[in-house]
Design goal:
By secondary structure, the protein is an alpha/beta fold. It has helices spanning 5-59, 63-76, 85-97, 110-119, 130-139, 143-156, 160-168, 171-176, 182-185, 188-197, 215-224, 226-233, 280-295, 315-322, 351-358; strands at residues 179-180, 202-204, 237-248, 251-261, 266-272, 302-310, 329-336. The protein folds into three domains: 36-97, no CATH class; 109-177; 188-336, Trna Endonuclease, Chain: A, domain 1, CATH 3.40.1350.10. Helix content is 54%, strand content 14%. Strands 1, 2, 3, 4, 5, 6 and 7 form a seven-stranded mixed beta sheet that branches.
Length: 359
Amino acid sequence: MQAPKDTLSNSFRNYAALLRKIRQRVLLAQQRAIYAANEEMLRMYWDIGGLLQQSQNIDGWGKKTLLRLAADLKNEYPEVKGFSVRNMQCMMQFFCEYNQELTMIKPITQSVIAQLESYNFTLPIKHLDWTHNLILMQQVKDIRARYWYMIQCITNHWTIRYLQEAIKLDDYGKHGALANNFTSTLPTPEANEVQSMLKDPYIFDMLTFTDQYNERDVEIGLVKHMEKFLIEMGAGFAFMGRQYHLEVSGDDYYIDMLMYNTFLHRYMVIELKDTEFRPEHIGKLNFYCSAVDDLLCREGDNPTIGLLLCKTKDRIKAEYALRDIQKPIGISDYELGQALPKDFRGSLPTIEEIENELG
């Protein structure tokens, strides 16, 4: 007797679901094995670097000893790579850079330990492979910048090439230096995601002013150059309006600029200031974020973030102002294009004058 089609269909779905779960479990085991192997290799490099450094401190040997060690270890373990002279020198640097026990958390120097403790974070070294660690150790000397790049590599799965390009383009300077309270107001994955999306400073070189200007002039200029403005803001941003109207308890309020990011699924309130940062700016921005959350956000939208754009900011004042604010807010500088003075054009040589000079 043939089984009903519905029964066969259900059996197939159940089997497909079972196979998918088993595959996921196998993949998890493979990933854990890779992570465990990578961590053990880093521990080995760490210990070898310590042995080499201790021996060199006692006996004062030079490169010839490393050459001999490289040859002997290659003969002893022909299937194991990584015992070149260059890599053993890197192991010593690795040990000296982060001279701590098995967890490989804090560097030995008191100044760097003080930095780490003041920033209240530890370095997630063991979650990165050897090449990523080498690049960061050798190319990023600022400990806070190095931590930022480490987090980006882990959370965003940066390749070696991408990391090198990010360092070359100073991604930390553009994103990591942003004054913000994201870590205290958002879950860790969201905080990292939002921070990596924003910059400091923003370069609005499509705008030039020879005379005095105010924030309204900047707003109008950005709207006129919307395409370039959106490119500078980054991926996923949509412009919702300038002087965006909100009514709260019968009173009218106007947000300088309102945007929505389709990747982050959240609104972003932008307030522009044609002055340096002042702490009182934060209260108004916090108010706007709360109002947008209540009046505009729908199911599926994440909490609204605020971005204050100022001519300049004092980072310490900015961090104090953000410390007890409940809404996620970032504070960034912005730069405009350099305009030529009105009388400058007249001082430039004409084409005829240039040709006469060349003749």
